[in-house]
Amino acid sequence: MGCCTGRCTLIFLCSLQLLAALERQIFDFLGFQWAPILGNFLQIIVVILGLFGTIQFRPRYIVVYTVWTALWVTWNVFIICFYLEVGGLSKETDLMTFNISMHRSWWREHGPGCIRRVVRPSAPGVLEDYSYVSVTGCIIDFQYLEVIHSAIQILLSLIGFVYACYVISIFMDEEDSFDFIGGLDTYSYRQPPQEHVELKPVKPVGRSK
Q1: CA distance between the termini of the chain
Q2: Which domain holds residue 115?
Q3: Main localization of the protein (predicted)?
Q4: pTM of whole model > 0.85?
């Protein structure tokens, strides 16, 4: 019963993590955030692997999921520090795009309540296709939305890590018990109990004439 409860809970958590990673991947693609896109892709692959291992009773796959979960938590902690500008980090840098573009988070211009206006400069000598983007009226700033996304990922990952360790321990215990029972059965079939039989000489019977 405990195994079923642990497996079902882990399957549910993996499904939630998969949905959360897909949702985050969509908005990171819209914002051209290449570093998070790569991380989300690996997260999706490993969560599917952990989900498969949980359903098919493959503890090795769940071990891979557990190790990756620790790395995933570390990555999301870094993202939180990046957007809150902790430790000398700055959200205005191009770190999330691998310094190949100047794109920022999609939520910066499309957050809840944000009004986006394109302002074209009227000063002489400025290119006609050059424009400024003004964003006003946001209910919550984009960096806090990114922090909320990362916090949700950390929460799901920590709970999934605990249940993954629990399911792995149950699977290993069941494998040990099955090996023990199978070993006794195999020994009983291969080594039948030896019985001491007393042999007596048999006299030949002569033919009647």
Answers
A1: 79
A2: 1-86+104-120+140-186
A3: membrane
A4: no
